[in-house]
Amino acid sequence: MENNPAVEIPILVVDDEESLRHTFKIFLKREGYGPIILASNFEEAVGELTTRSFDLVISDIVLGGNSGIDLLKRIRELNITCPVIMVTGYPHVDTASEALRFGAFDYIQKPVEKDQLLKTSRLALQQYKLQHEKQKAEEEKDHYRAYLDTLLRSVSDSIITIDQDLNIIKMNQAARSFFSPLNPAINEGGNLSVACADKNSCFFKEDAEKVLRSGIEIKEHRIEFTTETMDRKVISICISPLEDGRGSFHGVVIVIRDMTCLIESASSKLRSSFHRMIGASPAMQTVYTMIENVGKVDSAVLITGESGTGKELATEALHLESHRKNRPLVKVDCTAIPENLLESELFGHKKGSFTGADQDRMGRILQADGGTLFLDEIGDIPPMMQLRLLRFLQEKTFYPVGRDTSIQVDVRIIAATNVNLREKVQQGKFREDLYFRLRVIDIILPPLRERAGDIPLLANNFIQHYSRKMGKPVSGISDQAMTLLTNYTWPGNIRELEHVIERSCVLCNGSTIASEQLPIEIQNQTTFQDTTTSSPLRQGGELQHSEKPLFSDPFQGNSPESRIIAALKKSGGNKAKAARLLSIDRSTLYRKLREMKIDLSTFDL
Ligand SMILES: Nc1ncnc2c1ncn2[C@@H]1O[C@H](COP(=O)(O)OP(=O)(O)OP(=O)(O)O)[C@@H](O)[C@H]1O
The domain 11-133: what is its CATH number? Predict the structure, then answer.
């Protein structure tokens, strides 16, 4: 055998005859083996064996006080695996053959012939090399298996391999943890057909069978299912044919990702505020997530909710969440603009198109180009305007009053209403086609009574705001006063709460708002309750809320009409102030004025 001189093949020769040791050394060296280490007795040999490693040991059977068998035994005790060739002369042939039983590779008889020595050495070394390589391959395999196991363990996705008969071959730790509470029969050694006899946790079985039949991978199949404990899960499944590297396919590998965690973690990111909106209740979390998602698209949005629930704040948040945030957000309170001016207000007009149009006017829609147009109180717009608005929504173009050329704009429409628009549609008071155009996406703001848990958060925020604004040292509220606020039903919602806190801050001379600084209705908890705990809708399609004044009402007992007039007189004709005195919002006041046909010019304000 040609040996590579760069590769060492260390051999230990043990013999008490010096000449023999040297002869062996010469023969072996010439053959390309080496280094050849010589030892003259048992002790020397053991010394060498414990200090370095050998590929072969050639030892005389007679070694002074010890025998070659003793050396063989010691070699095995030392866990040395290299082959040992015994050299023996008459009368020790039997002993040498016995050595084979102790694991010697072979023995050669004296007088040793060179060829015999080299041939036996070569065979021993070859076998040792093969053994060595096999062991190395085994070690590599173990190493690879451990690496793969670690890899599978570290993956949070569930991984399952099954064979063509649906036998479960292997599952990683994530798969075991995922399935053990759902269906313990889905386990290594089990069979899917048996495990899935009547379980809905086998949502992947059909897909697996499909891939087994077709050999075609299934990617990211997303499904929902409900566990026996009624938990809803959202799962993404990938199934690939399991190939053996030589082109044959003998099973599938299933990777299951539990998306529920992602959904939960997104929703578990509880927020106590979002843009200018405050609230940590689950209802508000839904609103925040909705606004975040809807902000990204350009679809029309209809925001509904009782008066004072934050429709305008939600609109601002929507605008800020959109790509339009650096463009204008134009707000139009449809009830605040007289019917005959609404068209020109929205679409603009050409100079001279009607009496008083003494110059061209850019409408609100054009002002909002590239941005957002907020149409508040949309439920109250007259039929003619409903039609014009519908055309604009359909065509994205409009004609300013008195112009016969159209203008194209890129505007996102957000409409809001505190009336039940669907009911108005049923009553024939609002166009159905416009309703559906506006309500591509709807966001419903919950009334404060449905999220009473948010009251302390809101109240404390308003206290901070108003104490700063008024320069007063009010820093909190007593437990008793907070309980009164929490138990109250808030027909005017957050606007009403804000006014209560503002008023309390005015009345508070210390650092803490106490019960007696709250309006009498809240202290007594008698007003509003009956009207607000019933259905949220009132006859005529308006969302129900009490219109009784929030504070000790200076106009109490009067007819609605005279209360409004009294409030307007008190506020010197300032409608915003009058609305505050009456604890109604400005748009409700405008609506009432219209409904009651109150002409302010006939009063001495
Ligand atoms: N979530 C909230 N966090 C803090 N303040 C709020 C919130 N919602 C509303 N407000 C406050 O309440 C008042 C009324 O809010 P907003 O005008 O947005 O309500 P609205 O639903 O549009 O009312 P309306 O229907 O009467 O026009 C505002 O002063 C606003 O700042």
Answer: 3.40.50.2300
